[in-house]
Design goal:
With about 325 residues, this protein is of the alpha+beta class. It is about 35% helix and about 25% strand. It folds into 3 domains: about 100 residues, Rossmann fold (3-Layer(aba) Sandwich); about 110 residues, ATP-grasp fold, B domain (D-amino Acid Aminotransferase, Chain A, domain 1, 2-Layer Sandwich); about 70 residues, ATP-grasp fold, A domain (Dna Ligase, domain 1, 2-Layer Sandwich), CATH 3.30.1490. Strands 10, 11, 12, 13, 14 and 15 form a 6-stranded antiparallel beta sheet that branches. A 5-stranded mixed beta sheet has the order 4-3-2-1-5. Strands 6-9-7-8 form a 4-stranded antiparallel beta sheet, covered by helices on one side. A hairpin with a 5-residue loop joins strand 2 and strand 3. The longest helix has 19 residues. It is globular, with a radius of gyration of 20 Å.
Length: about 325
Amino acid sequence: MSSLRVCVIYGGWSSERDVSIASAWKVRPYLDELPHEFVEIELSQDRKWIQVTEHERKHVDPLRFLQDIDVALLLLHGVGGEDGVIQGFLETVGVPYTGPGVAASSIFMDKILTKHQFMALGINTPEYFTVTGAEAQDRAYLAQLWTEKAARWEQGLVVKPARGGSSFGVSVVDSEHDYVQAVNEASRYDDRILVERFITGVEVQVGLIGSSAAPETLPTLELVFNDGQSWFDPDTKYGSDRSRVSFRMPADVPNHATTYMRDVALKLYSHYGFEGYGRLDFLVPDSGLPLALEVNTITGMTPTSTFPLMAEKHGLAYGELINRLIELARSREEKVA
């Protein structure tokens, strides 16, 4: 592939802005190794496009700026970055981009819509119910939901904003009081909330790379929690103390569980026309089939992110991974043209 002019886009206005910027910092040193010209755009919190160079930061008109761009390398996370918004804009102006398209991005950014897809396709997933932002303020209604649904979930429950990532606004609780507090906390991030049954087991991630017609599964990755840690919270993901979690590749789970998770991942990847890459998160319980939890359409590329580790185990060093994603974006655009 000949040299391309690639625009690295990061920042944004979601709660995951800092994670996106950390991904950009991780990517930056590797760009000099690649046979392309790179320019950087930081999306500001007030949705302005800022070109970042070694010497200056300046506002640019995105329509004019993108006229000379061959590929957009998306390092955005959360609302405005993973939900089909930037993808739709780039398709409108004819710039190919890394990662899945508009439909897959908009569906799988939303954890409630993701649940609907799992159930429609017969994919095993934990029980759940939903709460709106208005319902989160109704103490009597929350108590009713607790009595009718959550109280019978003996191991507790997980409360999540529907359209959030990086575990921001997520809580794991086991009492009615904490459940109410968790719903209120999640409502700070989104007006739609997913309340899911907590099940103990092994958390496993399955990464994929390639076109929807020919995806490759990466080695499975198991999250091994230490010192009483029970889930992958933001402090564990991005904090300086990494002692609370370690990673095992491949995951130490039964062969039938690995086969099931890979089959589900490949099914979703092809069914929804994923392109470039993606990651699915599963829980392998003590008995029964693995449970699908979430789908990530733009995975983190920070120094502590798991997708680059899986890719490296697969034989793709960090710089090679970035180049592969750029090539996949360009080849997808050539097929459509």
